[in-house]
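Quality-control log, excerpt.
Job 1 of 2 completed; input and output follow.
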Amino acid sequence: MQMTTPESLSNYADSSAIADFADLTNLAARSLGAGVIAANDEWFADKENLLLDRAPEFRPHTFGPKGQIMDGWETRRRRGTSAAKPHVRPDEHDWAVVRLGAPGVIRGIVVDTAHFLGNYPPYASVEAAFVPGIPSVDEVLAEDVKWTGIVPHSPLQGDTAHRFDVAADGRFTHVRLNIFPDGGVARLRVHGEVVPDPDYLDGLTVDVLAAEYGGAALAASDRYFSPPQHMNAPGRSRVMGEGWETRRRRDDGHDWVAFRLAGEALITAVEVDTDHYQGNAPGWIRLAASDSGAGAEEFDLLPATPVQPDTRHRFRVAPDRPATHVRIDVYPDGGVARLRLIGELTPAAIADLRARAGE
């Protein structure tokens, strides 16, 4: 077997800018624990639909007691004060508040009006807030909570996924979607970088690659069938499409994914799960690690090791040096459902998290 080497991990060690929203963590993912905790109105369609993890659907002529059933959040029509003034004021609007599944820095927002045509809101804006602890709905909606505008009052179109870049550098736990004056939105996505609670992680042994703690896929050799972000998602995969799978190689190379950990960590155990990959699992896997920035020497976290189809593999490893980045090499190609790296963040990593959290 020829062990070809992909690009060095040092090329990704200082990388913080990711080209596409899809390569960032969806902080509003239900799988991370996000939820729509409040809305001023949801007459036609439930607010919880905003965070569903599937593409919006439309079934024509499917009616319930309140009309056509829509796969999204839809409010009733607002009215003015009288027949002489039938239209609402420009500042009147509906809103929904989302608790993020993980606190973090927001880099992009997607407001998707899929299938809403004659009933989409003409404008929207988004605000964000940081509310510590595990607040109640009343605490989040309290008057003393500071909300920061991250998407300005912006025009919308029907049946369109609107992408908005966000420049705010704060750490947020909640977002509020405002629609002017009323209407329907199918999905809301909040893409960014997780900044977990350093007090919680200090001294704990956890999965330092987990998306909920800030682990992220930075680059991959191939993502033909499914993206590498699936590998550090919460829980086990339910079907083959919930892992990372490459196309079939016809050369002498191999496939790989480079990850950034939640922070510098001493890794003590590795789990590689080929769940649901039976005729398309890799033959071997290898884990290479790096412990600092550009030019850092790579070292084997796990040498080239055979793996079995549809199997959860667990390995103990020696934590002789910390790592900040890890690359999984699969030989020659195939699918991996989940990758877990069990370890403890170093004091330096906890200090860095405190700085990023503004402590």
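Job 2 of 2 completed; input and output follow.
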Amino acid sequence: MLTGTMTGGGRLLSISQPAITRLIRDLELELKLTLFRRDKTRITPTREARELYREVERHFVSTERIREAALAIRQYNAGQIRVAAILALSVSCTPKAVARFASSYPNMVISVHSGASIDIIDLVLNGSVDVGFVAIPPGHDQLDHEDVPSSEVVCLLPRCHPLAGKKVIHPEDLHRQDFVALGPSSLMRLELNALLQLAGSEPRVRVESLFSSTVTAYVNRGLGIAVVDPLAAALADPETTVVRAFRPTIKYTLSVVYPPRAARSPPLEDFVNVFLQALREEIDFTQALIEQS
């Protein structure tokens, strides 16, 4: 399924192509399913093979996690911390926090996952990770979580933009301006849209992106203005982009989420503290960019 050929599959498993062919044929006979269509040297997975592969892969990943944990215990006599963070944090805070934590826990294995808040919440709820750092949406009361002190979203503008001379950007300033927007389902986008509607302001959306860090990259390229969280703003290129305050304020609140009723080890508590310190530093950095303007 991964290589597209029997020969490639054999190479991954360090066995011969005839052995792979025989094993696949035996598996098809045992399952009473046709898994591959043969055309000379090419093989094509059937629909049944793809469905089976998804199920096998799910169990295989679980088994690999057990093996990795066992290997870590054997080699390092230490545990593992499984962390999930939204992409904006993974670009900025996570590497800094992991580096600091690793200096105090050199034998600890740190597994890091990045994704959207809703996906991370699912990972936390089913116990696939030990802690998640997310923008938590309403309606997740079953989560064990701690809110981080809120900050404020900011406005990014190309340095050459006429509005770059203003210290504060308002919704009406965005009217008919080229704009880089977060996805339509983003809570920040919905709050911004409400303010724009009240002001009768209609920006000209040129690009939409799911992740705020990607939005910053588009502003760095001069594609338009954006309203983003302070973590994404810390990624602004000072050569091409300026950071300005945005009013009325839109609060940006993150939460630390834990699996329900799960015990927290001292190393996990230490990691969270180190992570929150790195987060505060990133937010302070963005605030300094605004004050410098």
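Post-run check on job 2. The chain has three domains: 6-72, 78-149+253-284, 151-252.
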